[in-house]
Specification:
This protein has twelve helices and six strands. By secondary structure, it is α/β, with parallel strands linked by helices.
Length: 291
């Protein structure tokens, strides 16, 4: 592996690195993204390490031609090596509407080999490679530019170690005759419902104890409010809690305000929620009354 990561921040340099990596049998891949004020994750960096030793940190915010990058990541002749791929896959599914394949997930591989089922990346690197990863950039805002040398090295280190993990884990899986099981487990991550959850089931993810006791009209409104919030958050690309917080949702389902003025008098309901969505929320409650 090259010791100093190559920063790819132009179309020309991306074309060059894609040409260098296209013949690889596998690529270790990691991403950095931000999801502070959006529903969908915003891709900020893509780090790759190839079996030819090349390590590159690709800046998609500086390169406005994502198809070049997708052509590499979605090449069916190259195995994508990820750790706990679901988060990365959610990002790619949103951006492209499909997922890169084939996949080798080091978290799944480790689980099959007897490690903790949801083992984190840092712990796996420590246990297998005897390396303690630096935590200096864990709170970095990856949207800010320019990136420092420390940020670039931190990002690159993830795929450098991921490539080494892959080599170790793949060998052990083959020796244990577990590769078929590994492929079966990885295929489970290609279910679209993992990345586009059904709005009608979102109420199940709200863990406030009071809501678990709802029945009748309150339960029906609670379910519809959770579905409405999910659809609205996606449409506006806002975090769910920016549309309606869990406790606000529960309060509306409990009190069943039939109009905007009654909604505004509920304790704990933000006035901005009433201003933006008051009529819609009251309408959801009235729908149950009319039913």
């Amino acid at each position: 592996m090259n010791d100093k990561p190559v920063l790819i921040d132009s179309r020309e340099s991306l074309m060059e690195v894609c040409d260098q990596l296209r013949g690889c049998e596998w690529l270790a891949v990691d991403t950095e993204f931000e999801r502070v004020n959006t529903y969908y994750p915003e891709l900020c960096l893509v780090q790759v390490a190839g079996d030819n030793g090349l390590v590159a940190v690709i800046d998609p915010l500086a390169i406005h031609d994502p198809e070049l990058l997708y052509g590499l990541l979605y090449d069916p002749g190259i195995t994508g090596v990820f750790h706990a791929a679901r988060q990365d896959f959610e990002l790619f599914y949103h951006l492209k509407g499909e997922l890169p394949a084939p996949l080798f997930d080091t978290q799944i591989a480790a689980s099959l080999l007897g490690y903790e089922s949801q083992i984190g990346y840092a712990n796996l690197v420590r246990e297998i490679l005897d390396v303690d990863l630096a935590k200096t950039q864990t709170r970095t805002d990856w949207k800010r530019r320019p990136l420092s040398d420390k940020q670039l090295q931190y990002a690159a280190d993830d795929v450098i170690h991921l490539a080494r993990l892959y080599e170790r884990l793949q060998t052990r899986l083959m020796e244990s005759e577990l590769m078929t099981k590994m492929e079966e487990q990885c295929r489970l991550l290609y279910r679209p419902e993992l990345y586009v959850p059904d709005p009608e089931s979102m109420w199940k993810k709200i863990k406030i104890r009071e809501a678990q006791k709802f029945s009748g009209a309150s339960l029906a409104v609670f379910k519809r409010l959770a579905a409405w919030r999910e659809i609205t958050a996606r449409r506006k690309n806002l975090p769910r809690k920016w549309v309606l917080k869990d406790h606000e949702l529960v309060a509306i389902a409990r009190e069943l305000p039939a109009d905007r003025n009654t909604l505004a008098r509920l304790e704990g309901i933000d006035a901005r929620v009433v201003k933006r969505y008051g009529e819609e929320l009251a309408g959801i409650v009235l729908l149950e009354d009319s039913g």
